[in-house]
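Tip: read the tokens left to right.
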């Protein structure tokens, strides 16, 4: 069996979706979630994959820092030429405090970025910076349930007039979420993408571009340097997970010895001291966020 690298690895995510020669994979992803029929030639990568960026990252950060900085496979950004729109994709591996507002900040920041980068002259020959603002499509892929009230894997938010039930005249912001742990999809291809992100494999009946994505994950397609970087990241994340587990186990043991309330307080403080956010502690342990905040205050 061919050795594969995890599709949720930061380096692998960028290598698969942000490589110039493999843009058919990114085109397939965009089309399956936004209903377009883009070709690879109609996508311009704004931050193409580069091994040099990872060399610099590893020079500047220790292995311990990687666990903190790589909780997310950072964004892929591209220009969709027929739509004259920017696209950004991000894969969020674990629950994280402030993820929802951050998922709004990135596309809004990308939208505002056009004000200074793409100034256009108007009919009078004067620069009209507002006319240069381009719509932004944002795809957030999560390996945890972000919206717990239903089993819908795919949802998209746009500017909307609630009172008159009308969409904004132009879809400047389309912010979407794809939850990999859910079961209801808008189309079969989204189901195939779920299988790819969770296993690194492509179903036999999946489109060719998803098979292409799966082939790109084969270890033989990574240089020795890339494989070392992937291994370093995976070890750092495993260490992070182990710290979370043992902090939880230690807290449970303390709870039995010293009383449930005291044990939970020790667990909370122990995890916070390791650098975990209050929301991360809540997500991992099931302790209500309000209880965690109370412990912090006291």
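Filled-in amino acids:
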């Amino acid at each position: 069996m061919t050795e594969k690298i995890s599709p949720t690895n930061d380096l692998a995510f960028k290598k698969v979706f942000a490589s110039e020669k493999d843009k058919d994979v990114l085109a397939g992803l965009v089309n399956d979630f936004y209903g377009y029929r883009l070709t690879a030639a109609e996508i311009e990568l704004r931050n193409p994959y580069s091994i040099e960026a990872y060399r610099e990252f590893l020079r500047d950060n220790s292995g311990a820092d990687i666990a903190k900085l790589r909780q997310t496979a950072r964004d892929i950004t591209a220009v969709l030429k027929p739509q004259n729109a920017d696209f950004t994709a991000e894969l969020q591996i674990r629950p994280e405090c402030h993820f929802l507002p951050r998922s709004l900040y990135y596309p809004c920041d990308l939208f505002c970025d056009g004000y200074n980068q793409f100034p256009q002259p108007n009919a009078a020959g004067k620069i009209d910076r507002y006319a240069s603002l381009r719509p932004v499509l944002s795809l957030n892929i999560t390996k945890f349930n972000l919206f717990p009230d239903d089993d819908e894997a795919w949802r998209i938010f746009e500017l909307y007039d609630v009172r008159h039930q009308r969409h904004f005249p132009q879809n400047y912001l389309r912010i979407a979420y794809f939850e990999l742990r859910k079961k209801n999809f808008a189309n079969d291809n989204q189901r195939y993408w779920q299988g790819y992100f969770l296993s690194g494999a492509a179903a036999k009946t999946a489109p060719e571009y998803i098979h292409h994505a799966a082939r790109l994950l084969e270890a033989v397609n990574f240089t020795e340097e890339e494989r070392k970087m992937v291994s370093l990241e995976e070890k750092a994340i495993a260490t992070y997970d182990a710290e979370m587990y043992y902090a939880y186990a230690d807290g449970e043991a303390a709870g039995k010895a010293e009383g449930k309330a005291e044990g939970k307080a020790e667990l909370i403080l122990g995890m916070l001291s390791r650098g975990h956010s209050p929301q991360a502690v809540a997500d991992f342990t099931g302790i209500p966020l309000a209880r965690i905040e109370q412990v912090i205050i006291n």
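Confidence is low (pLDDT under 50) at residues 62-73. The beta strands are 43-45, 72-80, 85-92, 120-121, 127-128, 136-142, 154-158, 160-161, 166-167, 173-179.
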